[in-house]
Write a structure and sequence with these properties.
It is a single chain. By secondary structure, this protein is an alpha/beta fold. It has a domain of about 220 residues: 3-Layer(aba) Sandwich (Rossmann fold), CATH 3.40.50. It has a six-stranded parallel sheet. A four-stranded mixed sheet has the order 1-2-5-4, with no helix packed on it. The longest helix has 22 residues. About 40% of the residues are buried.
């Protein structure tokens, strides 16, 4: 076949399937956006009050089903906030389970017994103090792991994002976009991880006892030399961030679960998910106000190519001046609701046939 004939055939095929979307993605429909007031609604995100302050504001409105897949396997009720609508809009969705991925952003395994731990006396990582890290590990055990166990085998994919690239140790521990380790590799990788993490000296400099400040700008000079967060080698010790960060111990990682690495970029993740037929992402993880938004597997990336639902009680925000994350998390989730649908663990259910 000549080049001209090949080009003509390609053009005809694109015209038939839709050049922008190649098939079903180019199809459109008219969505009925009429809203109905909900009388006496219960609070939102009320299942995990230790971790997320429930949302009790009104008014609330009910809307029509938005995502309505054929052969839907998941009912996912969700809500968003609209200033223009003057309230919260609740939207039912019916998702194909096999076309759905649950992605957990940055479940870092620190202070969990695997060997990676907060440097003393002043080092910071993840939630930045051992106390806060312990609380987040409990959240993983109470909320994240049960969510994954409830839907593993039903959804198309479960994944986690971690910093860095696929190093030789984590390649043996976790399935990635390019490699599925054997049981023997997993056992070897676990030993190597323990040895690597144990060999590091988790000690850095103490807090400064004296700070030199000017007469005119003592506040500026004070914070410049003693900021609220310094996660560099001064307090964490050089090489701390080069260690292979594992998935946290409270999460039972299955052999078919996939780890994505931030430094490899979003396009790699997107292509892998598309190749595996994923259209929807249920997003969880840490931290709601930072990494869940704008890292490689953050919602600002995913919403360009997938239908994204943030699982509001399966995420925690940073809480620097508090001993509880619940107020910071509800604020971060509420802000995300301007651009994103929010669901919760109890709203993700097997679809009625």
């Amino acid at each position: 076949m000549s080049c001209r004939a090949t080009t003509l055939l390609l053009c005809l095929l694109m015209a038939f399937t839709g050049a922008a979307g190649w098939g079903q993605e180019s199809a459109t429909r008219i969505y009925d956006n009429r809203l109905s007031p909900i009388k006496d609604p219960g609070p939102l995100l009320a299942d995990q009050p230790r971790y997320v302050e429930p949302i009790r504001t009104g008014p609330r409105f009910a809307a029509a089903t938005l995502v309505d897949d054929a052969e839907a396997g998941l009912d996912v009720r969700a809500w968003r906030f609209s200033y223009n609508a003057r309230g919260i809009i609740e939207v039912p969705n019916r998702l194909s389970a096999k076309k759905t991925a649950i992605i957990v952003v940055h479940p870092w395994g620190i202070d969990d017994g695997q060997g990676w731990k907060s440097p003393e006396p002043a080092g910071v990582a993840f939630q930045c103090t051992p106390f806060k890290n312990k609380l987040v590990l409990q959240h993983m055990a109470d909320v994240i792991n049960p969510l994954l166990k409830a839907h593993r085998g039903r959804v198309g994919l479960i994944g986690y994002s971690l910093p860095g690239t696929e190093d030789t140790i984590r390649k043996k521990l976790y399935r990635s976009i390019r490699h599925t380790p054997s049981d023997a590799e997993g056992q070897e990788g676990a030993k190597e991880l323990a040895q690597k993490l144990k060999s590091f000296k988790y000690a850095g400099a103490p807090l400064p006892k004296e700070i030199k400040v000017s007469s005119d700008h003592p506040v500026r000079d004070y914070f410049k030399q003693f900021p609220g967060l310094d996660a560099g080698p001064r307090f964490n010790n050089a090489g701390f961030w080069d260690l292979p960060i594992p998935v946290a111990k409270p999460i039972d990682v299955a052999a078919r679960d996939v780890v994505f690495y931030d430094a490899e970029g979003y396009s790699v993740v997107k292509d892998f998910l598309k190749k595996n037929g994923i259209r929807h992402v249920l997003l969880a993880g840490y931290n709601t106000d930072m990494c869940v938004i704008s890292t490689t597997c953050g919602w600002k990336n995913f919403r360009q190519d997938f239908n994204v639902f943030l699982v509001g009680d399966a995420t925690l925000a940073t809480f620097p001046a508090h001993d509880t994350p619940k107020y910071a998390t509800t604020a971060a989730v509420s802000f995300a609701a301007l651009d994103l649908f929010i669901t919760q663990g109890s709203w993700i259910k097997a679809a009625d046939k």
